[in-house]
Every structure is written in structure tokens, then in C-alpha cells.
TrEMBL record:
SUPFAM superfamilies: P-loop containing nucleoside triphosphate hydrolases (SSF52540). It holds the Pfam family ABC_tran. This is ABC transporter ATP-binding protein. The keyword Transport applies. It comes from Marinococcus halophilus. One of its GO terms (molecular function) is ATP hydrolysis activity. PANTHER family: ABC TRANSPORTER I FAMILY MEMBER 17 (PTHR43423). Residues 2-210 form the ABC transporter domain. Keywords: ATP-binding, Nucleotide-binding, Transport.
Length: 212
């Protein structure tokens, strides 16, 4: 579980108390510019609050070793980031982030297929479309295998059908492996369909508190 106590960050985040489960699927929704990405960045220790405390498993972030925390909690930013030239290198990078051994080409291909990326491992990652790079990033994250996935609009560049299909497949795998997922979505219908809990940005920007 994540817990935010009396957290303020710039004039964006303001909450007395917010708890977010780390073992189920939670959607974060709200208007553009309302602070959803900033919440994920706080949960990934990429930014620290100006005041208050963010904790994971009851331990304040300040007491965590940052590398260890980021092996357990990994974030997919809104814009895909590439690590290496080929599809294979990009997938294997997930293993390196998590400090794990490389895996076979079969496993790389299986992860890519799980996220509906039908490309050769030797293909150039740079030449993939924005939507393909999003699916590549999701597959890399699956291979990294953290305990909690923080996904910032992970399928925004896909058409609606594929968006639902990819989320279905990714979340099925996360549930199978008993992982937590916190995903930002602009689509209320997607939040309703996939998430066990939904958090509206009001609950962490207006000084209130919420236990989902
Ligand atoms: N480091 C920062 N310093 C100052 N303002 C910031 C910073 N980061 C974000 N903001 C501002 O805070 C607000 C919230 O940004 P954030 O990216 O969290 O919103 P969002 O809800 O994820 O938006 P979107 O749905 O459009 O992605 C925006 O107005 C943004 O410009």
C-alpha cells in the first residue's frame, strides 16, 4: 500500500491522507492538467513532496534505498523512452533495470506478443510507430516484473479497439502474477471496466483525503 500523509507538492498535489492499494488495479482519472502524472511521479520517488510523507509498505520513501524502491515500483511515463537500438535490446533492458538475468528470445517474443507487438526482435526500435513504442515499453515492463506498475496513459497512441485489447492482456498478466497496477486513464469507461478502484484527481489536489 502507498500512503500519502499531509502531502503538498507545488500547487499541484494537496492531500491530508490518501491510501492506494499496491496489490490490486487502481485507475486515476481527472481532467487534463489536474495532477495525475504528478501523483505517479511522487509514487515513483521521481519528485519529493514539499511537505508531508509518502510511504510504501509502511516505510517512508526517505527510508527506502531508491534503487530498491524502483525495482519494486516501476513507472511507464507518458512518452515512450527507448533503451538500445533493436526491439530485443529494448526488451532485455527491462531485465537489466530489475537487476535480473537476461532471458531467451522466446521469452522476449512472448512478452511482445502479450502486448500485441508483432515485430521482429532485430527490428529497429526507433522506426516503430508511437503506438508500437508504447507496446514495446509495456512488454519491457512486463519483463522487468516489478511488484507495482505505474502506467501513465500507457495506450494513448493506440486506436480504441487495440487500446482495450492491450490493456486487457497486460492487466490479465498482472493479475495472474498478483501484481499491483496504478494506471492513469482519460477514459472513464476504461477505468470502470478494468479497475478495482478509481481515484479522481479531486481527492489528491484539493486538500481532502480518500481511502479507496
Ligand atoms: N515540475 C513542475 N513545476 C511546475 N508545474 C508543473 C510541474 N509538473 C507539472 N506541472 C503542472 O502541474 C499541472 C499538472 O500536471 P500533470 O502532468 O500532473 O497533469 P495530468 O493530470 O497528468 O495532465 P494530462 O492528463 O494532460 O497528462 C499542470 O498544469 C502542469 O503544467
Amino acid at each position: 500500500m502507498f500512503q500519502l500523509d499531509n502531502v503538498k507538492y507545488k500547487n499541484i498535489i494537496n492531500t491530508k491522507q490518501l491510501t492506494i492499494p499496491a496489490d490490486t488495479i487502481t485507475a486515476v482519472t481527472g481532467p487534463s492538467g489536474s495532477g495525475k502524472s504528478t501523483l505517479l511521479r511522487l509514487l515513483n520517488y521521481l519528485v519529493s513532496p514539499d511537505s508531508g510523507t509518502v510511504s510504501y509498505h509502511g516505510k517512508p520513501f526517505s527510508a527506502w534505498e531508491p534503487t530498491e524502491l524502483r525495482r519494486q515500483v516501476m513507472m511507464l511515463p507518458q512518452q515512450p523512452v527507448l533503451f538500445g537500438e533493436t526491439v530485443a535490446e529494448n526488451l532485455q533492458a527491462g531485465r537489466l533495470f530489475s537487476g535480473r538475468e537476461e532471458v531467451s528470445e522466446e521469452k522476449l517474443t512472448a512478452a511482445a506478443q502479450q502486448c500485441m507487438l508483432n515485430k521482429q526482435l532485430s527490428d529497429s526500435a526507433e522506426n516503430l510507430s508511437g503506438g508500437e513504442q508504447q507496446r514495446l515499453s509495456l512488454a519491457r515492463l512486463l519483463l522487468a516484473g516489478p511488484d507495482v506498475y505505474l502506467l501513465d496513459e500507457p495506450t494513448s497512441a493506440l486506436d480504441e479497439d487495440m487500446e482495450w485489447n492491450v490493456m486487457e492482456r497486460f492487466l490479465a498478466e498482472a493479475r495472474r502474477a498478483a501484481k499491483g497496477v496504478i494506471f492513469v486513464s482519460h477514459a472513464a469507461a476504461m477505468a470502470d471496466h478494468f479497475a478495482d478502484h478509481t481515484i479522481q484527481s479531486d481527492s489528491f489536489t484539493r486538500g481532502g483525503g480518500l481511502k479507496p
